[in-house]
Specification:
6 strands; single chain; mainly beta; 4-stranded antiparallel sheet
Length: 132
């Protein structure tokens, strides 16, 4: 997962057959920022406002989000930050318009947007732990 993304805008959620979230959020999301997430609660889809980044139950503060927004598939089940949520299948979906990834040119990051060619929003899976 990228360290930065543009969430789906409220006026575009209908494109994914979703209802509009009832809370405000930024159009620039980074680790530790408030963001909209989709959860399934006993078969019902609901929006929640959460922090972007995985927050283990043992974390003392939200600074850990800067280091826990990404995990390797090969080791996610072993890492203290991720293993509980992985074992308990705690996942959510991030609805996005664009994700941003750096390309390093001459040692400097140049950010490139990744989006669907047809302009439609899409979702990314996210493992979740503690909701703030």
């Amino acid at each position: 997962m990228s360290a930065n993304y543009e969430p789906i805008s409220k006026d575009r959620v209908h494109l994914l057959d979703l209802f509009e979230p009832t809370f405000e959020y930024s159009n620039d999301i980074y680790p530790g920022a408030d963001c909209p997430l989709l959860f399934s609660n006993e078969g019902n889809v609901e929006w929640r406002q959460v922090k972007f980044g995985l927050v283990p139950t043992w974390a003392k503060d939200l600074k850990i989000c800067r280091k826990t927004y990404n995990a390797r598939t090969e080791t996610v089940h072993e890492k203290p930050s991720f293993r509980h949520a992985w074992k308990n299948s705690q996942f959510a979906l991030i609805p996005v318009d664009t994700i941003y990834e750096p390309k390093y040119i001459n040692g400097k990051a140049h950010w490139y947007g990744i989006y669907r060619k047809d302009g439609m929003p899409f979702t990314l899976p996210l493992q979740h732990m503690k909701i703030y």
